[in-house]
Specification:
Elements lengths: L1 H52 L13 H34 L4 E6 L5 E5 L1 H7 L8 H5 L4 H16 L4 H6 L4 E4 L2 E12 L2 E11 L1 H25 L1 H9 L2 H7 L1 H4 L1
Antiparallel strand pairs: 1-2, 1-5, 3-4, 4-5
Helix pairs in contact: 1-2
């Protein structure tokens, strides 16, 4: 049986070699099919996810009916939902910017470190100049009003440390700011989170005309009071007008006082 056994061994060896070759070929074929059917769509999804993360518009091919196609369809739905949401946010920000840029007041948002946020009214840049980088509010207004800047920096420590009551700490901050011939009023609106101040909105209003009006009104009141005094005591006014202070002071010592 030696010849038969050798023949059987040779057949087994050849069968093993053929089986190994067939298995290797099938493996390579399956890997290629997996790469084409699954790898490429997943790679496209990965590229699309990165573009979506960068804020770019994403367009995907029509998905197939398999599991990868279902995943692609879900990703397309998510991308469309994100795009719609971004459009709504952009429209809302545009409307908010339109409101902020067309009101007579300026709005600046500060964090707990006093740093100015990038979103602020355009009129603030027109009043005080552009804020390069992310400066603090006191550094930004130092070139405009150094005294108010120093006062604000000292008072902001109380707001940040949260030692005093919030209203008391905000009341210590400067209420006015002078820039040339114009006077600005500062009001502070805190934004709370978990009962603690998170940010503060600084509302800036031009009050130059109001202050000038109050000054003129005060001058008018003083002039009116002076005229009433003259009409009430014409004799004393006559002494002043003639320069006869001695007679007036001797006859009316109380009037001189």
């Amino acid at each position: 049986l030696g010849n038969e056994n050798r023949a059987i061994a040779e057949v087994e060896r050849r069968t093993l070699l053929v089986s190994s070759a067939v298995a290797l070929g099938l493996t390579v074929l399956l890997m290629g099919m997996v790469r084409i059917v699954i790898g490429r769509p997943l790679g496209k999804l990965l590229v699309a996810a990165r573009r979506l993360e960068a804020g770019e518009r994403v367009e995907l091919d029509r998905p197939s009916d398999d599991e990868v196609g279902k995943l692609t369809s879900a990703f397309r739905s998510m991308a469309e939902a994100i795009e719609v949401r971004e459009q709504r946010i952009t429209a809302r920000n545009r409307d908010m910017r339109l409101v902020l840029d067309n009101v007579g007041q300026g709005f600046i948002t500060l964090d707990l470190q006093g740093v100015i946020s990038a979103e602020r009214s355009r009129v603030v840049d027109e009043w005080f100049g552009r804020a390069d980088g992310s400066p603090t509010f006191w550094a930004y207004v130092r070139r405009v009003d150094p005294k108010a800047s120093e006062w604000f920096e000292l008072g902001w420590d109380a707001v940040r440390d949260d030692v005093l009551p919030l209203e008391g700490a905000l009341d210590q901050l400067p209420s006015t700011l002078r820039h040339g011939a114009r006077t600005f009023e500062l009001a502070y609106r805190p934004i709370l989170q978990d009962d603690r101040v998170d940010k503060v909105i600084v509302v800036i209003t031009v009050v130059t005309a109001r202050i000038e009006g109050e000054r003129e009104e005060r001058a008018h009141r003083e002039l009116a009071a002076f005229c009433r005094r003259i009409l009430a005591d014409r004799l004393a006014f006559g002494y002043f007008e003639n320069g006869d202070y001695s007679v007036w002071s001797i006859n009316n010592p109380r009037r001189l006082m």
